[in-house]
Amino acid sequence: MLTVASWGVWGAYIDYPAQQTPPFPETLGYVVWALVMIPPSLLALAIVGWKLEYDVKSVVFGCVLGLLGASGQLILFKTLRLAPAYLVFPYIALSPVVTIVLALIFAGERTTAKGWIGIALAVVAGVLLAYQPPKGEAQGLLWVLLASLVLLAWGVQGFIISYANRTMKAESIFFYMMLTGLFLIPAALSMTDWTHFRTAINWGFTGPYLTAMIQILNAVGALLLVYAYRYGKAMIVSPLTNAGAPVVTAVISLLMAWQAHELVWSSAKTVNAVGIVAAVAAAVLMAIEGEKG
Length: 293
Prior knowledge:
The structure is a single chain. The protein has 14 helices and no strands. It starts with a helix and ends with a helix. It is mainly alpha-helical.
């Protein structure tokens, strides 16, 4: 639930730096995210006495997890240039299905009827909460391929985090995730438009500094997620976090719009509201299942 809270607040403010004039590009937001992963990673290692596992298996697991998460972020940037968010995010919201299937097949995880209902509601909620009204047309079908890669990357990552927790410390897992995120910084920089970078990019407080304050919530949430996979089933943790975080984001966004007198109800918001109800119901059912497990 702490992961849900931190990612929910992060999701509500993540677009703010990119919406400024001039904006702070999402690709540079990735760079900031990779850098702010360092403090929580070092803090986690300090708690366990700096006992980093460096055997081949642990290093491979950690680096694969980091590459899956970070590459998914980078591919998402390209995907959103080819298709509108109302198509991309509902599609990617199905990533828990991949985690669940892998947990069933390879880890032999099982749950009760309540758990299955909660999982189904969480998957549905993820799609409904991500829905936005059409604002543009997708460019061909390349976006489908790219969005599928993101979906698979994050779905597989969820399962491997759960599996890796059986043989290595969560702190080591997160350290290698942080390390591989740093390795992909050059890729993010190459995707950035540096034309007139002095004036076309926001280098003030609402640029890199505010981005760091927002992205630290993502980093802390990622660390908490690794711990959640240590103590919970993958087929419960994945859909719970994917459905729960958007609820927090949606509530905060609605409150901000209401305070700014910009809240106009629409058919899209009705869909989102149904998603909120489904996500809350899913959270309750999976929390009950988690307590029993």
